[in-house]
Amino acid sequence: MTVGPDDILAFWNALGPGGWYAVDDVVDAAIRDRFHPAWRAARGGAFRHWCTTPEGALAYLILTDQFPRNMFRGSSDAFATDALALGAARGALLRGHDLQIAPPARQFFCLPLMHSEALADQDRCLALFRERMPDPGNVRHAGDAVTYLIEQGVLGVALPPADIEAEASSSTITVPRATAGTVRNGPFGSDRVTSRNRACP
Question: Distance between CA 129 and CA 124 in Å, rounded?
């Protein structure tokens, strides 16, 4: 069955905020049954043209960043298309696509940055949540992600969690840009992003 952006958005919107982050075997199975072929195609380079519109970009991000976390929970494949999602998110944010999507769905343009193991992406994620979705819960969650990565030694810095808390509640996390890179096989499973594997121009 052919899957398009409208199919993905209809499914995700029907699930709603209460189901987006729930651990539910039934939902995971439904996503696998319906969207696994489309995810596999996206992994191979399909659907990049979706990113030319706000709704299409949102559908692409859900397909490459959210669905695999349901379909492959506990497996490395859950993070296999993180690099594609990150490239798509960067392009969509540059175009302002996120501002054409109402909250709470707007958050899915920021989550690939949160899933990145690059300091600069984490910093930008916090800034975007404060500027474009200034809900305290969003900012807190983004700060928690950075705290976790630092505690795991992924980001290569030793900023105390207390400092993360203070910065997350007030502004953005200021990090040494000299060390802003990506690390493979970390807790968020991101990979190096290059011009070769960017999802959108």
Answer: 9
DSSP for 185-198, written as a single string: TSTT------TTS-
Same domain assignment for residues 44 and 106: yes
Averaged pLDDT in 10-residue chunks for the chain of 201 residues: 94 96 96 98 98 98 98 96 98 97 95 89 88 73 61 57 51 38 35 34 34
End residue of a domain, out of 69, 98, 115: 115
Domain interval for residue 174: 117-187
- pTM of this structure: 0.75
Peptide bond before residue 104 is cis, with ω within 30 degrees of 0: yes
As a whole number of Å, the end-to-end CA separation of the chain is 28
Q: What is the DSSP letter of 47?
A: T
